[in-house]
């Protein structure tokens, strides 16, 4: 897979996962512009996921959730942001 295609795919997965657990990155970044680096790091972390198929299935099955699944490499970050 080409690098930019992979980054784009994982950016979409990260954005969708964020939405499902109640994290609005546009709000986070508007309030805390310094979090832009954390967002970029989270997307790059997502590219190392070994459970992409399971993630896509989870995202398709859940309209919202209290937290990301255990295998999500960004679960802790999303949990902290969701709690505010």
List segments where confidence is low: pLDDT < 50 over at least 5 consecutive residues: none
Form type = globular
Number of domains in the coordinates? Answer: 1
Number of helices: 5
Mean pLDDT: 96
Instruction: Determine the structural class based on helices, strands and strand pairing.
Output: mainly alpha
Approximately how much helix is present in the residues? Answer: 55-70%
H and E order:
HHHHH
Strand and helix layout:
Layout: H1 3-20, H2 25-31, H3 36-46, H4 52-61, H5 75-83
Helix pairs in contact: 1-3
Report on the structure:
By secondary structure, the chain is mostly helical. The protein is globular, with a radius of gyration of 12 Å. The protein is built from five helices and no strands. Helix 1 (3-20) packs across helix 3 (36-46). The protein has one domain. The termini are far apart. It is 65% helix and 0% strand. The model has no long low-confidence stretch (mean pLDDT 96).
């Amino acid at each position: 897979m080409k690098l930019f295609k992979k980054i784009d795919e994982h950016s979409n997965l990260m954005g969708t996962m964020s939405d499902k657990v109640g994290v609005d990155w546009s709000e986070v970044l508007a309030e805390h512009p310094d979090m832009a680096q954390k967002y970029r790091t989270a997307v790059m972390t997502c590219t190392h996921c070994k459970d992409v198929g399971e993630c896509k299935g989870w995202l398709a099955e859940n309209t919202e959730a209290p937290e990301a699944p255990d295998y999500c490499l960004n679960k802790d970050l999303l949990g902290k942001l969701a709690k505010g």
